[in-house]
Amino acid sequence: MATAHGNLGEHQFGATPHNWPLMGKLLPYWLDEKGNAQVTLIGNPVMWWVASVGIVVFLAVTAVHLLRRRREIFDLPHAEFHQWWTSGSVLLVGWLAHYLPYFLLSRVLFLHHYLPAVPFKLMLLAAVCEHFYAWLKRFPRTTLSPIHTLVSLSSSLRHLLPRLRPVPHWLPVLLASHS
Protein backbone atom coordinates (compact mmCIF):
# COMPACT_ATOMS: atom_id res chain seq x y z
CA MET A 1 0.00 0.00 0.00
CA ALA A 2 2.86 2.37 0.79
CA THR A 3 4.40 1.88 -2.66
CA ALA A 4 1.22 1.84 -4.76
CA HIS A 5 1.03 5.63 -5.12
CA GLY A 6 4.72 6.41 -4.78
CA ASN A 7 5.13 7.98 -8.21
CA LEU A 8 2.34 10.55 -8.17
CA GLY A 9 4.74 13.48 -8.54
CA GLU A 10 4.21 16.98 -7.18
CA HIS A 11 0.93 18.84 -6.77
CA GLN A 12 0.38 22.53 -6.14
CA PHE A 13 -1.90 21.88 -3.18
CA GLY A 14 0.17 19.08 -1.68
CA ALA A 15 1.36 19.66 1.88
CA THR A 16 4.09 18.17 4.00
CA PRO A 17 3.19 16.51 7.33
CA HIS A 18 4.81 19.23 9.41
CA ASN A 19 2.20 21.69 8.03
CA TRP A 20 -0.80 19.60 9.09
CA PRO A 21 -1.14 20.16 12.87
CA LEU A 22 -1.54 23.93 12.41
CA MET A 23 -3.28 23.75 9.02
CA GLY A 24 -0.35 25.39 7.27
CA LYS A 25 -1.67 24.58 3.79
CA LEU A 26 -5.33 24.06 2.93
CA LEU A 27 -6.75 21.77 0.27
CA PRO A 28 -9.29 23.12 -2.24
CA TYR A 29 -11.62 20.41 -3.53
CA TRP A 30 -13.33 22.51 -6.16
CA LEU A 31 -12.50 25.83 -7.81
CA ASP A 32 -14.85 27.90 -9.94
CA GLU A 33 -13.41 28.50 -13.39
CA LYS A 34 -14.76 32.07 -13.58
CA GLY A 35 -14.31 33.47 -10.09
CA ASN A 36 -13.00 32.78 -6.62
CA ALA A 37 -15.80 30.42 -5.52
CA GLN A 38 -14.31 27.31 -3.98
CA VAL A 39 -14.90 24.37 -1.68
CA THR A 40 -11.94 23.94 0.65
CA LEU A 41 -11.01 21.38 3.29
CA ILE A 42 -10.50 23.37 6.45
CA GLY A 43 -10.71 22.26 10.03
CA ASN A 44 -11.70 24.45 12.94
CA PRO A 45 -8.53 26.56 13.32
CA VAL A 46 -9.07 27.27 17.02
CA MET A 47 -9.53 23.59 17.85
CA TRP A 48 -6.58 22.42 15.75
CA TRP A 49 -4.21 25.07 17.12
CA VAL A 50 -5.28 24.65 20.76
CA ALA A 51 -5.14 20.86 20.45
CA SER A 52 -1.61 21.13 19.01
CA VAL A 53 -0.62 23.19 22.03
CA GLY A 54 -2.38 20.55 24.18
CA ILE A 55 0.08 17.91 22.95
CA VAL A 56 3.02 20.03 24.05
CA VAL A 57 1.32 20.79 27.39
CA PHE A 58 0.69 17.07 27.97
CA LEU A 59 4.35 16.26 27.35
CA ALA A 60 5.56 19.10 29.59
CA VAL A 61 3.17 18.34 32.47
CA THR A 62 3.97 14.63 32.26
CA ALA A 63 7.70 15.37 32.35
CA VAL A 64 7.23 17.57 35.43
CA HIS A 65 5.11 14.92 37.18
CA LEU A 66 7.63 12.18 36.39
CA LEU A 67 10.58 14.25 37.61
CA ARG A 68 8.81 15.18 40.83
CA ARG A 69 7.74 11.57 41.43
CA ARG A 70 11.33 10.44 40.92
CA ARG A 71 12.30 12.88 43.69
CA GLU A 72 9.49 11.37 45.80
CA ILE A 73 7.30 14.48 45.62
CA PHE A 74 3.82 13.15 44.98
CA ASP A 75 1.64 16.02 43.75
CA LEU A 76 -1.08 13.64 42.60
CA PRO A 77 -2.47 10.58 44.35
CA HIS A 78 -1.35 7.37 42.68
CA ALA A 79 -4.76 6.63 41.13
CA GLU A 80 -5.05 10.13 39.64
CA PHE A 81 -1.52 10.01 38.26
CA HIS A 82 -2.15 6.53 36.81
CA GLN A 83 -5.30 7.82 35.06
CA TRP A 84 -3.39 10.83 33.68
CA TRP A 85 -0.49 8.70 32.48
CA THR A 86 -2.58 5.90 30.98
CA SER A 87 -5.20 7.96 29.17
CA GLY A 88 -2.71 10.53 27.91
CA SER A 89 -0.19 7.94 26.75
CA VAL A 90 -2.79 5.92 24.85
CA LEU A 91 -4.07 9.04 23.11
CA LEU A 92 -0.58 10.32 22.34
CA VAL A 93 0.45 6.96 20.87
CA GLY A 94 -2.76 6.93 18.80
CA TRP A 95 -1.99 10.41 17.45
CA LEU A 96 1.63 9.49 16.69
CA ALA A 97 0.59 6.23 15.00
CA HIS A 98 -1.67 8.15 12.63
CA TYR A 99 0.77 11.03 12.05
CA LEU A 100 4.40 9.86 12.01
CA PRO A 101 4.18 7.26 9.19
CA TYR A 102 3.54 10.05 6.68
CA PHE A 103 7.03 11.43 7.26
CA LEU A 104 8.37 8.19 5.74
CA LEU A 105 6.39 8.46 2.49
CA SER A 106 7.95 10.12 -0.52
CA ARG A 107 4.72 10.74 -2.41
CA VAL A 108 2.59 13.86 -2.62
CA LEU A 109 0.49 14.25 0.54
CA PHE A 110 -2.55 16.38 1.34
CA LEU A 111 -4.21 17.72 4.47
CA HIS A 112 -6.87 14.98 4.39
CA HIS A 113 -4.20 12.39 5.21
CA TYR A 114 -4.01 13.96 8.69
CA LEU A 115 -7.71 13.58 9.49
CA PRO A 116 -7.43 10.14 11.22
CA ALA A 117 -4.99 11.67 13.75
CA VAL A 118 -7.18 14.67 14.64
CA PRO A 119 -9.63 12.84 16.98
CA PHE A 120 -6.72 11.58 19.09
CA LYS A 121 -5.33 15.09 19.34
CA LEU A 122 -8.73 16.48 20.40
CA MET A 123 -9.26 13.73 22.99
CA LEU A 124 -5.79 14.41 24.39
CA LEU A 125 -6.76 18.09 24.69
CA ALA A 126 -9.85 17.01 26.65
CA ALA A 127 -7.67 14.93 28.98
CA VAL A 128 -5.35 17.91 29.55
CA CYS A 129 -8.32 20.21 30.26
CA GLU A 130 -9.79 17.66 32.70
CA HIS A 131 -6.43 17.36 34.46
CA PHE A 132 -6.16 21.12 34.92
CA TYR A 133 -9.79 21.35 36.03
CA ALA A 134 -9.15 18.70 38.70
CA TRP A 135 -6.00 20.56 39.75
CA LEU A 136 -7.82 23.92 39.97
CA LYS A 137 -10.57 22.41 42.14
CA ARG A 138 -8.00 21.95 44.91
CA PHE A 139 -7.69 25.71 45.45
CA PRO A 140 -10.17 27.88 47.32
CA ARG A 141 -12.62 29.72 45.12
CA THR A 142 -11.34 33.10 46.26
CA THR A 143 -7.97 32.56 44.57
CA LEU A 144 -9.48 31.71 41.18
CA SER A 145 -11.39 34.74 40.08
CA PRO A 146 -13.67 34.40 37.05
CA ILE A 147 -12.51 37.88 36.07
CA HIS A 148 -8.92 36.63 35.70
CA THR A 149 -10.13 33.80 33.51
CA LEU A 150 -12.13 36.14 31.26
CA VAL A 151 -9.25 38.60 30.95
CA SER A 152 -6.77 35.91 29.94
CA LEU A 153 -9.23 34.33 27.50
CA SER A 154 -10.11 37.64 25.87
CA SER A 155 -6.46 38.65 25.53
CA SER A 156 -5.72 35.29 23.88
CA LEU A 157 -8.64 35.68 21.48
CA ARG A 158 -7.53 39.22 20.64
CA HIS A 159 -4.39 37.78 19.08
CA LEU A 160 -6.30 35.03 17.23
CA LEU A 161 -9.15 37.08 15.77
CA PRO A 162 -7.18 38.77 12.98
CA ARG A 163 -6.29 35.30 11.72
CA LEU A 164 -9.89 34.10 12.07
CA ARG A 165 -11.63 36.65 9.88
CA PRO A 166 -14.31 35.13 7.66
CA VAL A 167 -12.75 32.38 5.59
CA PRO A 168 -13.16 33.94 2.11
CA HIS A 169 -11.10 36.94 3.22
CA TRP A 170 -8.09 35.09 4.54
CA LEU A 171 -7.86 32.31 2.00
CA PRO A 172 -5.59 33.06 -0.94
CA VAL A 173 -7.25 33.65 -4.28
CA LEU A 174 -7.31 30.32 -6.11
CA LEU A 175 -8.34 30.01 -9.71
CA ALA A 176 -9.12 26.92 -11.75
CA SER A 177 -5.99 27.61 -13.80
CA HIS A 178 -3.90 26.95 -10.66
CA SER A 179 -4.83 23.26 -10.55
From TrEMBL:
GO cellular component, one term: endoplasmic reticulum
Transmembrane parts of this sequence: 46-67, 88-105, 117-136
InterPro entries: PMT-like (IPR027005), PMT_4TMC (IPR032421)
The protein's name: Protein O-mannosyltransferase 1
Pfam families noted in UniProt: PMT_4TMC
Top-rank taxon, per record: Eukaryota
GO MF annotations in UniProt: dolichyl-phosphate-mannose-protein mannosyltransferase activity
Keyword tags: Membrane, Transmembrane, Transmembrane helix
